[in-house]
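Morning F.,

Quick status update on the modeling queue. The single chain you submitted on Monday has been processed. Sequence for confirmation:
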Amino acid sequence: MEDSLRGNKALLWCPTHLTDEAKKEWRRIMKLYKSLDVNILSDLDQTALIMYVEAVAIYKKAHETWAKYQQGVAGNPESQRYLDKAFNTMERQTKIINQLAEQLCLTPVGRARMGMNQLEADKTSALATLMAEDE
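Structure tokens below.
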């Protein structure tokens, strides 16, 4: 089963055209993927990864704007417009992030769909069997 989950070894390099914030997210995610026992990415995933890290970057920028203008909203229509625009952006990006995170196995549901939770359970069962034999 484990071999069937292993995909092609992805040669995914951080694209130079990403924003600085998206590059930070790319590096963070790649560290997480490398720590997994299963190779789940291929070069075909690059577009989804780019969309995900840019959506996270846009969300963070909108959140900064929202936090900044939240302080001065009372009675200030200009601040309210910025706040509404930032909130709408955050809402749109959240939908994109959630959809792509599942596809990229960045959520428990996404990992379960890939059968990764079963691999962990199999390892635990093997360890439990080994420990039981020693007793």
